[in-house]
Design a protein that fits this description.
- The complex is a heterodimer of chains A (282) and B (234).
- With 282 residues, chain A is α+β, with helices and mostly antiparallel strands.
- Chain A contains nine helices and four strands.
- Chain A has a four-stranded antiparallel β-sheet.
- The two termini of chain A are 29 Å apart.
- Helix content of chain B is 35%, strand content 26%.
- In chain B, strands 6-7-8-3-9-10 form a six-stranded mixed β-sheet, with helices on both faces. A four-stranded antiparallel β-sheet of chain B has the order 2-1-4-5, with helices on one face.
- In chain B, β9 and β10 form a beta hairpin.
- In chain B, α5 packs parallel to α6.
- The radius of gyration of chain B is 18 Å and the shape is globular.
- Classes of the chains: A alpha+beta (282), B alpha/beta (234).
- At the A-B interface, α7 and α8 of A face α2 and α3 of B.
């Protein structure tokens, strides 16, 4: 085992309370960040589900030849913004209306609902401007009677999404900033606790890079353990929320790995900054 | 080994600590640095191991110049020096042998060379039987011997001692001083700051005396320097 690793582990053994305190502090600051991330993730997921329902419906003039709508369907499907185009015949429209309106199903009679081309847009093209532009293009077809897409609803949805994104970025940065400050201060305590060793290492001719390495290992280890503890706490919170409050979504594997890696990175950077600052000051 | 050329050191808050100090210490010398508290003794020693840089003038130690040296080379210089303090500066949670071995490890000594070298150093300072003791289990004199062994770990050409007997009783002082004389006799240059004028008188070594940041006496050049001290010139 290298001297740097041994020195890092010695720090753990020599002051276990301080080490546990450091890991717990890192864990709780990351836990607060993770809880916020979980809320942001679920809001985003809910909005994505709603967004998925954005649809432009172009009603077809009664008596239009099937070949004409079929050809237009292929044409519209080739628009870069369009995910899918579905031709809904008058009969299918009636069936759908009966299903959607349940107890009023008997008020509909055959032939009263027009056929339509139902167009869904790709994710990223569901903003009001794009939806409106595609709707305008659909209107230009001769067989189009009317085009509807719930303009006001799309605008509201888009505004909510923008507010949620902005709030997410601002709060996320604030939480991350607080986490960085807390982790940095915690690691600074470890550095100060070993100031005597640092002074002796310098005195006998150890290079600054050599002096840094045990602290970087120490910080990275604490950050990783803190990240894992934060992950455990977040999982428990998520399980309780899902069981007693509302079914929610948890981070996927990539985000879990990214979270623990963020803990390790915080520990590494916090240590690097703290020990460099200390070395400059002595 | 050490050359100070018109060295001035000024601290932003406390003002001038050294004013145009010049002297030369040759290889193999044993030199006392004396003077009242605040005269600048520790500042001179810190300049020797480049813990401080001069505000003006040049310090040359073991072939390296304070003017030309780069940050990364300071550690190289310190591997050629040994430094001893009044308060020993040992790591309390490590044994005597670990304290000495630590100095070798952090400077990248081969692992298999460390144990025999530590044993040899402990024998040199007369503490072979205390290898596994912790500093708190030793007397002041013994702790200072451990510090000396650590200072010798990298076979330094120069040992810098800042009041090494300041915390010791008379008997321990004699023992530590004799050890330093033996080290000097083996060819290592020693510069030692001390308040102990009896020790200085008995030892009959070269003495540099400081007062208010100026060199007022150098026993190697008695004529001019004694005059300066007698007239209180700073």
């Amino acid at each position: 085992m290298s001297l740097a690793t041994r020195e890092a582990l010695r720090g753990f053994r020599r002051s276990p309370v301080l080490s546990i305190l450091s890991i717990t502090t890192i864990a709780f600051s990351l836990y607060a960040f993770a809880l916020f991330g979980l809320v942001a993730l679920n809001i985003r997921s809910a909005l994505a589900q709603v967004e998925d329902r954005v649809e432009i419906r172009a009603f077809v003039v009664d008596g239009t030849a099937a070949e004409a709508t079929s050809a237009a369907s292929g044409d519209i499907g080739a628009f870069p913004e369009v995910q899918s185009v579905t031709l809904v015949t008058s009969e299918q429209a009636l069936e759908r209306a009966r299903k959607e309106l349940g107890e009023f199903s008997d008020v509909f009679e055959a032939g009263i609902l027009p056929a339509s081309l139902d167009v869904r847009l790709k994710p990223g093209f569901r903003d009001p401007a794009t939806v409106k532009a595609v709707a305008e293009r659909l209107k230009s077809y001769d067989f189009t009677d009317d085009v509807r897409y719930g303009e006001e609803w799309v605008q509201k949805l888009y505004r909510i999404r923008n507010i949620a994104t902005l709030a997410g970025i601002v709060l996320g940065l604030a939480f991350a900033g607080v986490a960085v400050i807390i982790v940095g201060s915690t690691i600074r305590m470890s550095v100060l606790a070993r100031a005597r060793e640092i002074a002796i290492m310098r005195l006998v001719g150890a290079t600054d890079g050599f002096i840094r390495s045990p602290f970087l290992i120490d910080g990275t280890l604490k950050g990783t353990l803190g990240g894992m503890l934060a992950l455990g706490l977040t999982w428990v919170s998520y399980s309780l929320i899902t069981r007693y409050v509302i079914a929610a979504q948890f981070f996927d594997v990539r985000l879990v790995i990214a979270g623990v890696a963020a803990g390790a990175a915080l520990g590494f950077v916090g240590s690097a900054l703290s020990v460099s600052r200390h070395l400059r000051s002595v | 080994m050490i050359r100070f050329t018109r060295v001035t050191k000024e601290f932003p808050r406390t003002g001038i600590a050294l004013r145009e100090v010049s002297f030369h210490i040759a290889r193999g010398e044993f030199v006392f640095l004396t003077g009242p508290s605040g005269a600048g003794k520790s500042t001179i020693l810190k300049l020797c191991y480049l813990d401080q840089r001069p505000s003006d003038g040049e310090v040359r130690v073991a072939g390296m110049s304070s003017v030309a040296i780069r940050g990364g080379d300071v550690s190289k210089l310190r591997r050629r020096l040994g430094v001893i303090f009044q308060d020993f500066r040992l790591l309390e949670d490590r044994t005597v042998e670990a304290n000495i071995g630590f100095a070798l490890e952090v400077t990248g000594a081969p692992t298999d060379s460390i144990a025999p070298k530590v044993a040899r150093l402990l024998s040199q300072v007369g503490l072979s039987s205390k290898a596994t003791a912790f500093p708190a289990e030793l007397s002041g004199g013994e702790q200072q011997r451990v510090a000396i062994a650590r200072a010798l770990a990298n076979d330094p050409a120069l040992v810098i001692a800042d009041e090494p007997t300041g915390n010791l009783d008379e008997r321990a002082t004699r023992g530590v001083f004799q050890l330093l004389r033996d080290i000097n006799a083996a060819g290592t240059t020693i510069i030692m700051a001390t308040h102990d004028l009896d020790l200085v008188k008995r030892a009959e070594c070269r003495t540099l005396e400081l007062n208010h940041g100026a060199l007022v006496f150098d026993s190697a050049a008695p004529g001019a320097s004694v005059l300066a001290r007698d007239e209180g010139t700073v």
